[in-house]
Design a protein that fits this description.
Layout: H1 2-22, E1 28-35, H2 54-57, H3 67-70, E2 71-81, E3 87-95, E4 103-109, H4 120-128, E5 132-136, H5 150-161, H6 169-182, E6 188-198, H7 200-211, E7 217-221, H8 227-232, H9 237-242, H10 244-253, H11 261-271, H12 281-284, E8 293-298, H13 310-322, E9 329-334, H14 343-357
Parallel strand pairs: 4-5, 4-6, 6-7, 7-8, 8-9
Antiparallel strand pairs: 1-2, 2-3, 3-5
Helix pairs in contact: 5-10, 6-7, 10-11
């Protein structure tokens, strides 16, 4: 009965989350696919723009000499709802293979201010190993941005108007629609779709796996944290500083001399309702059970304090244990590492998907 109760609770929470997402949706449109062109000059909302990532380059890949010539590249737009943000840009890499066997797929989400093109080393590595690898531009990033302040402006607008959820939740809606598309593709095994991401992308992967059970395996990297715990324990500053403009705007509107706990809580409640309450990690992480879940964090990460994961970890261990699959839940807290993805995290994530997605 406890197991059935846990499943029921998870489904109820999922339903409540989907209802919350629907409260700020643009008009829905039929899911359609439009061919797109490769992006020649990707937009990065940081100065100077990043150049390369040794961590992503370290991802295990098959030993194929002419890999780039053997890769199939698809650039697509997925139309999911009305409005300028209703077009989801995709970069999909897979091997040009003559057989028609369905393959596992992994969705990749970038970090703040980056874009799907930044993920190419990971996409190529996974594609070389037989996956269909999908890179996504999150809301107000990449092709969905027009200038260096698009994401910042969207966050401030959400605080002011309360009509969008640019921090995490709107992109999760996109990922639900993406699952609709991926499960219809002839080259993908719909029962073997994984999802991962770095930092903001890790949060997207976490919540997408919670919201949509079609994501069969999840591995968020430096993204999972306890938002309520951070507020209650005054450990919110590093996370706030990563998107400080919206908190400064809120501070001014609330007549505060400085950003404090009240400002932080009001911003979360406004731009991502439930993020620091019913949809926080202690509830949504165990709701991913029994699907395989790897959480990779740095032990010294100030944005994702490891102490804030004690309750989510305990509840997840209980949830996975109750359905006799404790081996499907794992947390890595890499010693001495702050808020950055490392080669170890990339390798562990790669191994996790191979373990649970490969036949």
């Amino acid at each position: 009965m406890e197991v059935n109760g846990a499943v029921t609770d998870a489904e109820k929470l999922r339903s409540q989350f989907l209802q919350a997402l629907r409260t700020r949706r643009s008009a829905q449109v039929p899911l359609t696919v439009e061919p797109a062109k490769p992006v020649v000059n990707p937009l990065y909302q940081e100065v100077p723009p990043p150049t390369s990532s040794e961590e992503m380059e370290s991802c295990p890949k098959a030993n194929i000499g002419d890999l780039k010539e053997l890769l199939k590249e698809e650039n697509l737009y997925l139309h999911i709802e009305a409005g300028e943000q209703g077009k989801l840009p995709l970069l999909i890499l897979s091997m040009k293979e003559s057989n028609l066997e369905k393959r596992p797929a992994v969705v990749f989400l970038h970090s703040t201010h980056k874009c799907k093109e930044w993920l190419r080393p990971l996409l190529e590595a996974y594609a070389s190993r037989g996956y269909v690898a999908i890179g996504v531009d999150s809301r107000y990033h990449g092709e969905r941005a027009s200038c260096l302040t698009t994401y910042k402006d969207a966050l401030v607008s959400s605080w002011k108007n309360g009509d969008t959820m640019p921090f995490i939740f709107d992109t999760v809606w996109d990922l639900i629609k993406l699952a609709d598309f991926l499960t219809q593709r002839e080259d993908i095994d719909s029962s073997r779709i994984g999802i991962t991401g770095e930092s903001l992308g890790g949060m997207h992967a976490w919540f997408a796996a919670f919201a949509d059970t079609r994501y069969a395996v999840a591995a968020p990297i430096i993204g999972v944290q306890g938002f309520r715990w951070a507020v209650d324990n005054d450990k919110w500053e590093a996370r706030v500083n990563s998107i400080k403009a919206v908190f400064e705007e809120a501070r001014i509107d609330l007549g505060k001399k400085e950003i404090d706990k009240e400002v932080v809580e009001k911003v979360w409640n406004r731009i991502a309702p439930g993020l620091a309450s019913q949809f926080d990690a202690p509830n949504t992480i165990p709701a991913i059970a029994p699907r395989p879940l790897l959480i990779a964090n740095g032990a010294e990460d100030p944005r994702c304090p490891i102490d804030g994961l004690e309750i989510p970890k305990a509840r997840a261990c209980k949830a996975y244990g109750e359905v006799h699959c404790s081996d499907k839940f794992k947390i890595i807290a890499e010693p001495g590492i702050g808020h950055r993805m490392t080669p170890l995290m990339v390798k562990e994530t790669s191994d996790w998907f191979d373990q649970f997605l490969k036949p």
